[in-house]
Predict the 3D structure of the following.
Amino acid sequence: MCYPFEQWFSLPQLIVGHLSMLASATMVKISYVGRCIALYALKREVR
């Protein structure tokens, strides 16, 4: 969202946008790893 509309936002808004993209991607990855660990602990197939 930040890249195609960057001319419409101020620099602080762009920084927050980029940081939130980084944080959300990190949270998705951490959640997936947590899911894999939980499935492994339940002795279910990890796909």
In short: The chain has one helix and no strands. The longest helix spans residues 11-41. The mean pLDDT is 91. The radius of gyration is 17 Å.
